[in-house]
Write a structure and sequence with these properties.
Elements lengths: L13 H7 L5 E7 L3 H5 L6 E4 L14 H10 L7 E5 L3 H10 L5 E3 L6 H4 L29 H7 L5 E5 L3 H4 L23 E2 L15 H9 L8 E5 L4 H13 L5 E3 L3 H5 L9
Parallel strand pairs: 1-2, 1-3, 3-4, 5-6, 5-7, 7-8
């Protein structure tokens, strides 16, 4: 069997996945906000994680650690498994595993459709991995920011809170990205947060822009390497994508994700909203 090389910067491409389909050391995870695309066809051997149903509770708060641990176990993941995330919410899956101490996590950046565009076939067969016994999880506070950390960062010149939602969300016209009006809280943004909409980090095909393009996008908004950066969005997916670009693409030394994001902050009765 092909030896699994360490890919640079946590990235894999379609060719790498093709070479490792069926490799017992590798677990593919498709992460999305809807199961529809997965059910129509997915990369062989991949397990589905729902960004809402699996990674958030009914109140849209992050699931507690015991529940996340059970998800890893049900997915057949052990501490030595090479986990590869892909799909709409791949950055969230990547960051979440890193934020809880999993060693080898990689990601197929960009659209899931690059699999079919490369001439590879989807499958509708849903794998049934043997359940593992994943050990207790820990939170890596170097890349995960709590509400208290966010509040302490407001107004500090050595820190920047980065909102990567769309302009209508940042400006208070919408709570949810879709504009849905159910289960909403207060619209707006965290005081002092700068807005760099996530679409500015992607090219026309939805793939991440080059480092040369990303750097001025961030720096022009005051998101510079000399500051500690906290990213947020609505449920953490876009924030994780920005985190990956800053940490892995541009080498920013201090970048954290506020995983609660606006789904929690906007519903807190005593949180500051601008």
């Amino acid at each position: 069997m092909t030896t699994a090389p360490q890919m640079p910067d946590g990235i894999v491409d379609v060719a790498w996945i093709v070479a490792h389909v069926g490799d017992p050391r590798v677990r593919l995870i498709e992460v999305d906000a809807s199961r529809a695309a997965y059910d129509q066809g997915h990369i062989p051997g991949s397990v589905y994680w729902d960004a809402y149903a699996d990674l958030r509770d009914s109140a849209f708060r992050p699931v507690p650690l015991p529940e996340l641990r059970r998800l890893l176990s049900r997915s057949g993941i052990t501490p030595t498994t090479i986990v590869v995330t892909y799909g709409y919410a791949a950055p969230l899956g990547f960051w979440l595993l890193k934020a809880h101490g999993h060693g080898d996590v990689r990601m197929l950046p960009g659209s899931r459709d690059q699999w079919s565009r490369a001439g590879e076939r989807w499958t509708t067969e849903v794998p049934q991995p043997d359940e593992s016994r994943y050990p207790l999880l820990r939170e890596d506070l170097d890349i995960m920011a709590s509400r208290q950390v966010v509040e302490a960062a407001i107004g500090r010149p050595d820190q920047v809170i980065l909102d990567v939602r769309s302009e209508p969300e940042y400006g208070g016209e919408r709570f949810w990205p879709s504009g849905a009006t159910e289960n909403t809280g207060r619209a707006g943004h965290i005081p002092g947060a700068v807005n760099v909409p996530i679409d500015l980090l992607r090219d026309e095909q939805g793939a991440p822009k080059s480092v040369e393009e990303l750097r001025p996008t961030f720096e022009s908004s005051g998101v510079t390497k000399d500051k500690a950066v906290i990213t947020y969005c609505t449920i953490g997916n876009r924030a994780s994508e920005a985190w990956f670009a800053l940490k892995y693409g541009l080498g920013y030394p201090q970048v954290r994700v506020y995983y609660d994001s606006w789904a929690v902050w906007g519903k807190l009765i005593d949180s500051a909203v601008a």
